[in-house]
């Protein structure tokens, strides 16, 4: 079975790097992007380490309304 695939673009927003170049550098230097959880107090939980994405929605140009309506897992307005 043959299937055709078209890649229209590559973008990354991940712990440790925003953008393809930064993320690739993280992978090639074998660095970790995990750290102690900073979004909330992880003290009651067994695991206190995670890979968090640093994202400032206001700096990315989102309006206060868009920010209120978005889930933290959303990276771009939809």
Automatic annotation (TrEMBL):
What Gene Ontology molecular function terms does this protein carry? acyltransferase activity
The Beta-ketoacyl synthase-like N-terminal domain is annotated at: 3-74
Which domain of life, per UniProt?
Answer: Bacteria
User: What Gene3D superfamilies does UniProt report for this protein, alphabetically?
Assistant: 3.40.47.10
Looking up InterPro entries in the UniProt record yields: Ketoacyl_synth_N (IPR014030), Thiolase-like (IPR016039)
Q: Quote any Pfam family the record assigns.
A: ketoacyl-synt
Name of the molecule in the record: 3-oxoacyl-(Acyl-carrier-protein) synthase
Which species does the entry assign this protein to? Answer: Nocardiopsis metallicus
């Amino acid at each position: 079975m043959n299937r055709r695939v078209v890649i229209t673009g590559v973008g990354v927003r991940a712990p440790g790097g925003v953008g393809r170049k930064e993320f690739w550098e993280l992978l090639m230097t074998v660095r970790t992007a995990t750290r102690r959880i900073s979004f909330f107090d992880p003290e009651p939980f067994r695991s206190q380490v995670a890979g968090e994405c640093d994202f400032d929605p206001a700096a990315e140009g989102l309006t206060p309304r868009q920010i209120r309506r978005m889930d933290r897992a959303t990276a771009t307005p939809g």
